[in-house]
Design brief:
Elements lengths: L3 H11 L13 H19 L7 E4 L14 E2 L4 E4 L2 E5 L4 E2 L9 E3 H4 L5 E4 L4 E7 L2 E2 L7 E4 L2 E4 L6 E5 L8 H20 L2 H24 L8 H8 L1 H7 L11
Antiparallel strand pairs: 1-12, 2-5, 3-4, 4-6, 7-11, 8-9, 8-12, 10-11
Length: 251
């Protein structure tokens, strides 16, 4: 499965429909699939920590130019003045020095106490790690707003889920996306709530399978060291039998 047309045909086949020549055709199956295909891919990407869609990034903070009296600033544009960054509160902001007029706001105050703003990558979907720590356990203070990460750190590194094409996702994720798409088009294309419910059920199962296999490929960063040691121990496995090896209170 390498194209969105392949994805659409997989979804249509799951619904018992005939394949299309191209997802860009003008017939109803094609236009319906086209309307939902990007959402289907994006939603599945947001529902997991997929290794095949993971990237590393080192966002760079854009430092605005020094304020110039001859420059007209639009609302929201930034400039530095005497070592401080300001943001214009008004449009057509010309020849108004930031420290002597009300036409500018201190950028620090706008950032609600954060010192820096880094632009997220254009293919960003969801943050997984910041500065080497998982977002669920990070002691890094940050917020994500309007395509930026706000933080006090002078520089940051991130791991994130990125927008991907269907060709890069692998067969299990492709199957999950196809089922997600099938669920989305079942009602508008066929008017069938029954097929929609069936596709949702199959999608839930496919997503769980994809997550299980993806976890096996995650390596040591995704699993605590003690869980890997216990997982390799035949003695502990024999004693614990059906106990959950990730529960420390069992030992």
């Amino acid at each position: 499965m390498t194209t969105n047309t392949d994805l659409a045909n997989a979804a249509l086949g799951m619904l018992g429909e005939m394949p299309i020549a191209s997802i860009n055709d003008s017939n109803k199956p094609a236009t319906t699939c086209l309307a939902f295909v990007d959402a289907a891919i994006g939603e599945v990407l947001q529902l997991g920590r997929w290794n095949k869609a993971t990237k590393r990034g080192y966002p760079v903070e854009t430092v605005p130019a020094a304020w110039a009296g001859g420059t007209t600033y639009a609302i929201g544009e930034r400039a530095t003045y005497d070592g401080t960054t300001y943001v214009s509160r008004v449009g057509s902001n010309l020849a108004k020095e930031p420290t002597v007029t009300t036409s500018w706001d201190d950028w620090w105050a706008v950032l609600a106490g954060y010192a820096h703003r880094f632009a997220l990558p254009t293919d960003f979907v969801r943050l997984m790690e910041i500065n080497g720590e998982q977002v669920t356990a990070s002691d890094e203070y940050y917020e994500i707003e309007e395509g930026y990460i706000l933080t006090d750190s002078d520089e940051i590194s991130i791991r994130y889920i990125a927008t991907e094409t269907i060709a890069t996702l692998g067969p299990l994720l492709q199957n999950a996306v196809a089922l997600r798409l099938a669920a989305k088009v079942a009602v508008p294309l066929l008017g069938s709530a029954e097929k929609h419910a069936l596709m949702v059920q199959l999608f839930t199962k496919a997503l769980a399978e994809a997550r299980q296999v993806d976890a096996l490929e995650s390596g040591s960063r995704e699993n605590p060291g003690w869980s890997r040691v216990f997982g390799r121990s035949r003695l502990i496995a024999a004693k614990t039998q059906n106990r959950n090896p990730l529960r420390m209170e069992d030992y």
